[in-house]
Specification:
Layout: H1 12-15, E1 45-47, H2 48-52, H3 57-69, E2 72-76, H4 82-96, H5 100-103, E3 115-118, E4 132-139, H6 147-156, H7 161-189, H8 193-200, E5 204-212, E6 224-227, E7 233-238, E8 244-248, E9 251-254, E10 262-266, H9 268-273, E11 283-285, E12 293-300, E13 307-308, E14 326-327, H10 328-337, H11 345-357
Parallel strand pairs: 1-2
Antiparallel strand pairs: 2-10, 3-4, 4-5, 5-12, 6-11, 7-10, 7-12, 8-9, 8-11, 13-14
InterPro entries: DIOX_N (IPR026992), IPNS-like_FE2OG_OXY (IPR044861), IPNS-like_sf (IPR027443), Iron_ascorbate_oxido_reductase (IPR050231), Oxoglu/Fe-dep_dioxygenase_dom (IPR005123)
Keywords: Iron, Metal-binding, Oxidoreductase
Domain Fe2OG dioxygenase: 202-302
Length: 358
Amino acid sequence: MPNEENSLVFDASISQHQCNIPSQFVWPDHEKPCPEPPPILNIPTIDLGGFLSGDVDSVTCVINQACREYGVFLVVNHGVDLALVEEAHKGIDYFFGKPLDEKQRARRKIGDHCGYASSFTGRFSSKLPWKETLSFHYSADLQLSNIVESYFLNVMGENYRKFGRVCQEYSEAMSSLSLNIMELLGTSLGVGPACFREFFEGNDSIMRLNYYPRCLNPDQTLGTGPHCDPTSLTILHQDNVGGLEVFVDEKWHSIPPNPQAFVVNIGDTFMALSNGIYKSCLHRAVVNSKVPRKSLAFFLCPKMDKMVSPPKELICEENPRIYPDFTWPALLEFTQKHYRADMKTLEVFTNWLQQKGS
């Protein structure tokens, strides 16, 4: 639960040299990283350009199976300029390389989901993740066309204009990519390419920059604990270090970096939209003792007033309605103020909604 009184400070410039990490970062034995490198998960690599050009049947069959089983896949031939991706990664180095007091200008406020967070020291007092993040709001609404760039200017100042522009362009590219992926998911579920694409047009999404400092005790902590994303879809680009793990068949598997590809995983909101047919991806991130790790994560979310309710085609006698209607802001508030996101977030949120309505 939130802990506003916690005064612990996570300063990566100091923490990466600590031989003994603070107890708040030490995870229980049953959740610590695997002592041996986990097996590699052989997830499908989807040629998105091929799908959009008409190669539908072979792709949708593969994606349907992957999303029913573990909720994650790779996309290549995605149309995103890799030079832009590289610039965004350089921006991570630029921001997280700054002194803590400068980064704290964008400090995330209690109960908010955007801003700079040095671990989650302001929210929790145990099982803290070994990471820093910078999260900001993105909107596909044309009236908010420069929302990311304006955020950096207003919060961090003129020196961040260029970085803000890069993050704006990257977020726009991720929004466009996510709509194409929604065509793929809609087709694979049998509701047609327009169904989910139209639902997410004008999306109110979240962009996050992740920085995992090196840790001299990587076997004691986690960069990110086991959880399913409460959002709809996550589009992740890893650097070349590695550390992403997915839980499949009762054990953890690694997803090695591929600079040409994006990792796409299903989140809780889309699991609800699919009436439970497609599964949220249970994942975590581990750290290492040699080098920091970076990643770019775009969390696709519906427009704030959209009702999350599955298409009628996905409800039948064999697959009855599982989750109640809800809006994304309701689930977001639940994870920010009432519940720490894990593998049971959607189940607990559903029970919470039903109790409130009874």
